[in-house]
Amino acid sequence: MSVQVTGSQPHIEVRGLTVSYGSFVLMRDLNFTIGRGEVFIIMGGSGCGKSTLLKVLVGLKRPSAGQVLYGPVSFWDVSPEERDKVMRRAGILYQSGALWSSMTLAENVALPLEQYTKLKPAEIRDMVAYKMALVGLAGFEDFYPSEISGGMRKRAGLARAMALDPEIVFFDEPSAGLDPVSAKLLDDLIIELSQNLGTTIVIVTHELASIFAIGTNSIYLDVETRTMTAKGNPNELLKSSTDPKVVRFLTRGGSDQPDGLKGERI
Amino acid sequence: MNSHSPPSISLDQPTPDRMRITVGGRWSLGASPDTAKAHAALSAGCSALDFSAEALDEWDSSLVIFLLGVIRRARQSNMEVDQSGLPAGLNRLIALAFAVPEREGAARNAIRASLLERVGEASLSIPRKLGDILEFLGEATISLSRFLRGRANFRWRDLLLMMQQTGASALPIVTLISLLLGLILAFVGAVQLRVFGAQIYVASLVGIAMVRVMGAVMTGIAMAGRTGASYAAVLGTMQVNEEVDALVTLGVSPMDFLVLPRTLALVLMMPLLTIYANVMGIAGGYIVGVTVLGLNPMEYLMATKAALSLANVWIGLIHSVVFGVVIALSGCFFGMRCGRSSSAVGDATTSAVVSGIIGIIVVTALITVMCEVIGV
Ligand SMILES: Nc1ncnc2c1ncn2[C@@H]1O[C@H](COP(=O)(O)OP(=O)(O)O)[C@@H](O)[C@H]1O
Ligand SMILES: [Mg+2]
Questions:
Q1: Ligand 1 neighbour A58 (Cβ under 6 A)
Q2: Cα distance from A196 to chain B (closest Cα, Å)?
Q3: Tens digits of per-residue pLDDT, B187-202?
């Protein structure tokens, strides 16, 4: 694996972000920077607010305080049209794939192209076939999302997310619900894309294998203190972190004994 | 060892301040002994508790639950608990249950709010709900204005598909309902009119009733159950699957892409279905008039024609267009505001149908009053 030059320029800067549902504060005081070309991992126990943080980063949920800066643009202080313009350069792979179920896979991948390019139908067809081939789904163009397996749905979702050659792609638990082999293939696909296209990748995951294999930077969200308690390259965090919760997360709890549960919440 | 020995509990006091609980036999769910006595005896002023399980054959969760209750209670009254007499597996399960303390505030308080409180809360939520509806209507209007300027972002293919699903596919049910309604109106009318020998007025009764309001109302109710429910269920499921989020982050307005084609399709199809329903209703009346009342077929048709005015037809069509808007928007509103679970989709569908039908009745009343006022 080649060594990447990462973090040279910031892609997204998050400053003093607080995220809440009504009066229930989920996360407060988040400060981190996602550099261009990085594979940035958001870690944390389930229910700590990873998906919600992702929603804030992609414009689906307004934060209750703080800023998200895409370059010079303060994402939540500009008009919805400006936000759309920023998101046009982003792709998102949802936790469940979120393919539009009334459309075939080809139509799913084609919709972003139809929306934002002036390509002719024949060109769109070629582009769709190429993107489908990239994720290993050549020949499945005319299938509906309900007719393929979960792993294939994730890959089709990735093809759709990559349709417009985005500068940044967000993933919500890409390998959840996949068997280890499919999960590994998806990881490989993600890293290929990030290295060959220079795409910035933001991933929510708790797959340790993925975290160490592909992560170049990360933050750890802690459910008890409701803020981030660590940031940095996950491999270095494993070596140097002094926070017992982070270490336990990165070492799968450190032990398999039920006694290891002492007073912890699952 | 007898594998069918019944489960047993006994209590004794080996020393005056030590309580011992002896469990034995075969404990299984549904066949546990009366544990209340043991709980009651626990408060007998001892300062230590231990267990004996030598006669225990088999056990399952029923025994664990009993012991958990006893231990919790003993700890509360500051007794010293010695679990060494219990099998190792049982002790591990007990330790596991105590390992993670109950999350404070996690359990939902089951305290029932008082009547006043509930009424107050319900009233306070009305402005929020109204605001939500107004916001949706505003967005729908903006989307419509984009459509009129030719800038709405949706696929014509979707519109045509919706028109087929809401229009052509609904013909069988509309046929059935309006034909039967025509029959019923004719029968009910005939009973009264025959008294005066005025059977021929059955034709005008059925004609005017169907064309002016009943055709539109029956079509509207059929569409609320059929199309309104389907809109809410489809959009609700799209919410659950994050498909709507995927549209939003692509910069495609769900209002344009999902709500607009559905509303347009129903608004275009409702008048057509209503005209069809009118014809079917009149046909129903004709069947009764000619076969049961023995009216002359030609005479029936002429009487119908004489009774119908163009104004009545227009009023019926206005009803149908407004019903189309009401049904489509209530279906889409509840679908778009659907929660993230399968039961939320069910709730959305129910609400869509109920408010669709209420909307139809209210709109009918309003239009009827307005017609009365302007005298048509
Ligand atoms: N729509 C919502 N309204 C209120 N609370 C929510 C909503 N969605 C999620 N939550 C709460 O926010 C917390 C974090 O959810 P989420 O971001 O999905 O966690 P994660 O992805 O880290 O597992 C959960 O504990 C959940 O109770
Ligand atoms: Mg999540």
A1: no
A2: 24
A3: 999 888 888 888 889 9
For chain B, the three-class secondary structure string (H helix, E strand, C coil) is CCCCCCCEEEEEEEECCEEEEEEEEECCCCCCCCCHHHHHHCCCCCCEEEEECCCEEECCHHHHHHHHHHHHHHHHCCCEEECCCCCHHHHHHHHHHHHCCCCCCCCCCCCCCCHHHHHHHHHHHHHHHHHHHHHHHHHHHHHHHHHHCCCCCCCHHHHHHHHHHHCHHHHHHHHHHHHHHHHHHHHHHHHHHHHCCCCCHHHHHHHHHHHHHHHHHHHHHHHHHHHHHHHHHHHHHHHHCCHHHHHHHCCCCHHHHHHHHHHHHHHHHHHHHHHHHHHHHHHHHHHHHHHHCCCCHHHHHHHHHHHCCHHHHHHHHHHHHHHHHHHHHHHHHHHHCCCCCHHHHHHHHHHHHHHHHHHHHHHHHHHHHHHHHHCC
Q: Is B100 within 8 Å of A58 when comparing Cβ atoms?
A: no
Close Cβ partners of B81 (under 8 Å, ≥ 6 residues apart): B48, B49, B50, B71, B74, B75
* B93 and B175 share one domain: no
Same domain? For B138 and B165 the reply is no
**pLDDT at residue A80 tops 50:** yes
**Residue B162 sits in the same domain as residue B265:** yes
The Cβ of residue A103 has, within 10 Å, a number of other Cβ atoms equal to 18
Tens digit of pLDDT for each residue in B35-91?
Answer: 777 777 776 677 888 888 888 888 888 888 888 888 888 888 888 888 888 888 888
Q: How far apart are the first and last CA of chain A?
A: 35
Structural domain of B343: 156-374
**Residue A86 belongs to what H/E stretch?**
helix A80-87
Residue to mutate, A18, A24, A26, A206, ligand 1, most ligand atoms under 8 Å from C-beta: A26
Going by the DSSP 8-state scheme, the letter that residue A238 receives in this structure is H
Q: Is A52 helix (H, G, I), strand (E, B) or coil?
A: helix
Q: Do B241 and A96 touch (CB under 8 A)?
A: yes
State how far the Cα of B337 lies from the Cα of B132, in Å rounded to an integer: 9
Complex ipTM value: 0.80
Q: Are residues B147 and B164 in the same domain?
A: no
Contact (Cβ atoms closer than 8 angstroms) between residue A172 and residue A128:
no
- Ligand (nearest to CA of A50): 1
How confident is the model over A90-148, as pLDDT tens digits?
999 988 788 999 999 999 999 999 888 888 898 999 999 998 888 888 889 899 999 99
CA distance B36 to B304: 80
Q: Are strands A217-222 and A39-44 parallel, antiparallel or unpaired?
A: parallel
Q: Is the same domain home to B179 and B286?
A: yes
For residues B267 and B261, give the distance between their C-alpha atoms in angstroms, rounded to a whole number.
10
Least confident of A50-54, B42-46, B181-185: B42-46
Same domain, B141 and B228: no
pTM of the model: 0.79
Domain count of the fold of chain B: 3
Give the tokens for residue B232.
Answer: 């809410």
CA neighbours closer than 13 Å in the CB half-sphere of residue B237: 10
The pLDDT of residue A109: 93
Nearest-ligand number for the alpha carbon of A226? 1
